[in-house]
Design a protein that fits this description.
The chain is mainly alpha-helical. 71% of the residues lie in helices and 6% in strands. It starts with a helix and ends with a helix.
Length: 94
């Protein structure tokens, strides 16, 4: 599917290489963040334990606390990609 446009172009522009690298790296980051969350939701029946902090306090570990950080990062990644896309459209339009 990608071979024909590349053959027709006769050259690969550096912008295309950077866009492909961005797509590959953002996809990799999304997979790294979503895989543990998917496993927690689908395969883990229960979570138990606590974190003992340096000041002596304890915080319970739950499925929700284990999922929260990755979900926040996934939302930020999605927002960043949309912001980049909008910025590129505005740049191209002006």
């Amino acid at each position: 599917m990608l071979v024909q446009p590349l053959a027709a172009a006769e050259e690969i522009r550096w912008e295309a290489v950077l866009a492909a690298a961005f797509a590959a790296l953002s996809s990799y980051a999304q997979r790294q963040l979503s895989t543990p969350v998917r496993r927690l939701r689908r395969e883990v029946a229960s979570v138990s334990g606590s974190l003992e902090l340096t000041d002596g306090r304890r915080e319970a570990i739950t499925r929700e606390t284990m999922i929260a950080g990755n979900e926040a990062a996934l939302r930020a990644l999605a927002a960043a990609i949309v912001a980049l896309a909008v910025a590129l459209v505005v740049l191209r339009a002006t």
